[in-house]
Each structure stands twice: as C-alpha cells, then as structure tokens.
Amino acid sequence: MCRIITVANQKGGVTKTTVCQHLSYILAEEGRRVLCVDFDPQTNLSATLLPDGQAPALNISGIMARLLEDQDLPTPSSYIQRCGNVDLIPGSKALAKLETNLLTEMGTERFLQEILSPLRPHYDYIIIDTNRAASPLMTNALTAADSVLIPICPEFYSTEGLTDLIASVLKNRRRLNPGIEFEGIVFSRCNLRTNLYRTTRANVENAFCDEIRVFKTAIPETVKVGDAISRGLTVMEYAPESKASIAYRAFAKELISYAEQSAPAQRSALHVLPGGGDRRVG
Ligand SMILES: Nc1ncnc2c1ncn2[C@@H]1O[C@H](COP(=O)(O)OP(=O)(O)OP(=O)(O)O)[C@@H](O)[C@H]1O
Ligand SMILES: [Mg+2]
C-alpha cells in the first residue's frame, strides 16, 4: 500500500529537502518503489536529483496549471523522471506565481491529491518536499498526504514554527483530509553532545510525545552532508561510514518499522492543540 509523506516545517533551513533526498534514497535501496515530488518553488530537490540537462516535458507547476484550466491530467511519462533509484516529479519556480491563482480560484486545495492519487498503485512511498510557508501550496501538500514528517534542528527558536505547523495539520484534518496522521518529528543537523540539543529534545518530547512520535534517531551535523549534496549525492554514497550516513539508515529503518506495521498508532487523539499550543514548547 502506498504511503504519501509530506515533509514539512514552516521554518526554513531545517533540512526538509535533505531529509526527502536521503530518506527516499534509503527507502529505494530497501526495495521500496519511491516517487519524490518537489513541491517547493525553490526547486532544491530537483536541482539535487535531476541529472544535468535531463528534465521531463512537464513539471509540477505545468500539471497544476492544466488543472486550473480544467484540462485532463497528462500521462505520467510526461512529468516523471527517473533519478538514480527514485522517480521525481520536478519542481518549478513558476509554482510561486501559480500560487496566486490557487488563492483566487475555487476548489484548488485538492489539486496535488488529484495528481498523486492515480499514481498510488505504482509506488510504496511518495515523498513530498514543501516550502517553508503556510500557504495554498502547503494546504495542497497536507491534503494529498497520509502523514506529515517534521524535521527540526535544535536551535533556540526551533520549536517556534512547530506549534503553528501542528495546528495547520489539525485544521487540515478537520476540514479537508480526515485521514492525515503525524509520521513523527525527526531531529536533524544536531550536535548531539550539546545542551541545546538535549534541552530542545526534552522540550519537544515533553510537549508532544504522547501524541506525536519523536524519532529516536537524530541526524548529526556534519560537513559531509553538504559536500555530498553539492556533488548530487547522498551522504550514504559519498561517505558511507560517516555518522550521518549511519544515522540516516537507522532513521529510515525506524520510519519503515512504524509506517509498515500499523499506521493507526499515530492516529492520535490530538484534534486541537491542548493548552493553547504555543505554551507547550520553548
Ligand atoms: N546533517 C547535516 N549536517 C550539516 N548540514 C546539513 C545537514 N543536513 C542538511 N544540511 C545543510 O543544511 C542546509 C539546509 O538544508 P535544506 O536545504 O535541506 O533545508 P530546508 O529545510 O529544505 O530549507 P528551505 O526551508 O530553504 O527549503 C543545507 O545547506 C544542507 O546542506
Ligand atoms: Mg528545502
């Protein structure tokens, strides 16, 4: 059964794209059929994954534009590109402009869901990279998803956007996508020995662990990740023995074990943020 995971955090630079790239690579290596969707107008995931000069005729913005004009969906071969061991629907900077039309046209919240639903039989996982803002694009990404994976970095303000994002997911569940679950929170780009990491982790666990899983594995900070990405590689390919490579594998294993056992565990009773939300973390 296909699981569509939206990787989201309204805060920028918290390794959303890196998590999409690395998680997808390992899932595929583990024999799962994986489709990545670059749903961020920055197109960082496409830049990392797409081989030079190769791009399908259409990208995600082109497909969405067709739906805005009430045209039929194009054939998947016109917008899906094989990139190493995963498939990709490339992003486009034009997605930013298209977002204005999503705001003014009626019934656009389910466009991404419409695009991805027919692809479900062909994949075990569809991983969606998102932009940093609460926006019509984010609404589409949440409405299309079975679950939300939230990467966070241990910084002083790292939990600030977390309550807003969780509130958006809960609102989406009430209004548009009753089946949406939390895949969990993964700590990333961490210096594991610092008090900042320990304190942030403790705050997040205290605030949310009854309702949202915090993955045991944290991804350590290392320059090897940036080095790998700049070469269009994952850290597993570039530095297989590095701590980040080992951690990414452990994280993916954890995610597979939860995602493929029984999803209802994460169908938490959380419907509204208790205690007003914001006061729970920080
Ligand atoms: N484990 C890590 N160690 C060190 N640097 C990392 C690690 N993971 C990611 N990075 C670096 O952190 C930066 C931000 O990562 P990334 O682009 O994935 O974040 P993002 O949340 O997708 O950002 P945006 O909000 O702009 O889309 C990148 O330069 C990336 O190379
Ligand atoms: Mg990104």
Search tags:
282 residues, Rossmann fold, 7 strands, globular, disordered C terminus, binds adenosine-5'-triphosphate, binds magnesium ion
Task: Give a written overview of the molecule.
Residues 263-269 and 271-282 have low confidence and may be disordered. Helices cover 40% and strands 13% of the residues. A 7-stranded mixed sheet has the order 3-4-2-5-1-6-7, with helices on both faces. α3 (60-68) runs parallel beside α4. The chain has a single domain (3-280), classed as P-loop containing nucleotide triphosphate hydrolases (Rossmann fold), CATH 3.40.50. The protein has 11 helices and 7 strands. α7 (160-175) links the parallel β6 and β7. By secondary structure, the protein is an alpha/beta fold. The protein binds adenosine-5'-triphosphate (ATP) and magnesium ion (MG). Adenosine-5'-triphosphate (ATP) binds next to α1 and α9.
What number is the mean pLDDT?
91
**How far is the first residue's CA from the last residue's CA?**
37 Å
Secondary structure: number of strands: 7
Instruction: Look at the helices and sheets and give the structural class.
Output: alpha/beta
Number of helices: 11
Attached small molecules:
adenosine-5'-triphosphate, magnesium ion
Q: How would you sum up this structure in a few lines?
A:
With 282 residues, the chain is α/β, with parallel strands linked by helices. The protein is 40% helix and 13% strand.
